[in-house]
Amino acid sequence: MTHEHFHPHLTPDEIELWAQGLLGAAGALHLAECRDCLAHAERERKLVLELARLPRFAPEFGFDDRVMTHVRVPTPSGDFRA
Ligand SMILES: [Zn+2]
Q: Are 17 and 23 within 8 A, CB to CB?
């Protein structure tokens, strides 16, 4: 039970990285040894998975862009000084 000397506890940032599969081997090794961090990490990963599974609330970005283009279009700069 000397895992504290092996690697410091993971920071919230590191746990978030781990949940996204981006954490390095050292952090992952600590998780394998440390129940506290593992419990925290599992909670974080559940959250990430749930967020990823959420239906999209917002319309697609492309759709938004097209609408914005149409809104801006009716001001042709050519006719302005005629
Ligand atoms: Zn730990």
A: yes
pLDDT for 58-77, tens place per residue? 555 565 666 656 566 555 66
Task: Look up the CATH architecture of domain 3-73.
Answer: Orthogonal Bundle (1.10)
pTM over 0.70: no
CA–CA gap between residue 43 and residue 10 (Å, rounded)? 14
Q: How far is the CA of 31 from the centre of ligand 1 (A)?
A: 6
For ligand 1, a single-atom ion, which residues have Cβ within 5 Å?
Answer: 9, 34, 37
User: Could you tell me the CA-to-CA distances from 79 to 5, 73, 82 in Å, in that order?
Assistant: 73, 13, 5
